[in-house]
Each structure stands twice: as structure tokens, then as C-alpha cells.
């Protein structure tokens, strides 16, 4: 977490926290599956197919979290005032840039 965030604030994803944790556990299982595939010396293309599935799952997770951020944190900041709104929009743009580059 970055410095300067209000840790008493409830972030937008909290209402769907269990769903997000379930998705992360599935992704964790995919990672373990990939490790097993390498340990068992599975065919390269089969491993790459599973990497693509895991990458897609992470991207989907990220987009959902970004959507929650935009709908809650950014909207709340816009209501609070200009400086805070600009900061939240800048954070969101930086996050989008990191996702696009990954």
C-alpha cells in the first residue's frame, strides 16, 4: 500500500471481498498447477496454454478491482474536492498504465 492512504476508509471492493479472495485462491491454484506441470515435464504448449489462462484471470481480477476503485474511491474523491479528485484520477491512470504494460 502507498503512503498517505486513509486505512480507516472502506474501499469499494470490500463489499465483494469474498468474491475477490475466491478468485485469488483460484489463481493461486493455477500457479501451483503450473509448477506441477513443469515438475512433471509436461509439453511446453500445454504449459503456455495454462499461463495464458492464469494471465487472463489476473487481468480480469485487475479490471474488476480498477472498476471498483473508479466507482468508489475516485467518485468519492470527486465529491470531496478538486485536489483530492485529481490525485485519485492520477492514481487510477498510473494503475491503468501499469496494467497495460504488464
Q: How do the helices and strands line up, and which of them pair or pack?
A:
Layout: H1 17-39, H2 44-80, H3 82-101
Helix pairs in contact: 1-2, 2-3
Features:
mainly alpha; 3 helices
What does this structure look like?
This protein is 78% helix and 0% strand. Helix 1 packs antiparallel against helix 2 and helix 2 packs antiparallel against helix 3. The radius of gyration is 17 Å and the shape is elongated. The two termini are 19 Å apart. The model has no long low-confidence stretch (mean pLDDT 87).
Helix residue percentage: over 70%
Largest sheet: none
- Note the beta-strand portion: under 5%
Number of strands: 0
Q: What is the global morphology?
A: elongated
List segments where confidence is low: pLDDT < 50 over at least 5 consecutive residues.
none
Can you give the mean pLDDT? 87
How many angstroms separate the termini? Answer: 19 Å
Structural class: mainly alpha
The topology string of helices and strands comes to: HHH
Number of helices: 3
Q: Rg from C-alpha positions? A: 17 Å
Brief sketch in words of this structure:
The protein is mostly helical and about 100 residues long. The protein has helices at about 15-40, 45-80, 80-100.
Amino acid at each position: 500500500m502507498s503512503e498517505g492512504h486513509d486505512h480507516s476508509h472502506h474501499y469499494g471492493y470490500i463489499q465483494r471481498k469474498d468474491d475477490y479472495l475466491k478468485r485469488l485462491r483460484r489463481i493461486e491454484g493455477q500457479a501451483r498447477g503450473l509448477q506441477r506441470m513443469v515438475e512433471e515435464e509436461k509439453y511446453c504448449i500445454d504449459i503456455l496454454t495454462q499461463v495464458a489462462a492464469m494471465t487472463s484471470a489476473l487481468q480480469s481480477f485487475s479490471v474488476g478491482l480498477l472498476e471498483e476503485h473508479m466507482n468508489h474511491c475516485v467518485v468519492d474523491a470527486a465529491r470531496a474536492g478538486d485536489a483530492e479528485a485529481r490525485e485519485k484520477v492520477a492514481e487510477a491512470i498510473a494503475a491503468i498504465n501499469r496494467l497495460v504494460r504488464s
